[in-house]
Amino acid sequence: MVLEKDAESDSRMTMESLKKNADFKKCYESGRSFVNRHLVLYMCGNGLDRNRIGISVSKKVGNSVVRHRVRRLIKEACRLHEAELRKGLDLVIVARVRAKETGFFTIERSLLHLADKSGIRISESRSDEKSND
Prior knowledge:
Layout: H1 2-11, E1 16-17, H2 21-30, E2 32-35, E3 39-45, E4 52-57, H3 64-81, E5 89-95, H4 104-118
Helix pairs in contact: 3-4
């Protein structure tokens, strides 16, 4: 029983985070960028079978509490929708100043908008569509 649970946890997709400054610079300099009101997405290939995510929140956004909150919101939106994204990419997500005034659903919509705009989203979720009840 324990072995089955471990096998399931290994099969879950997990995105790594970008940690090295050189990886961030590679995305900034040689990658493509896409912008909306709340976020900027930089993307480039990484030659791996998984995505790596880097999140950057400038001091212009606010104090450390505000910056960390924005970072958590972006990270959670990425986690929820990682199965919908193409693999083999380094993604750097930069929060713009307006991101501090928004909630989770706005950040999530902004991230999905950028994923659609950049062409890295492979399947659209039913939760985005409004049903006519």
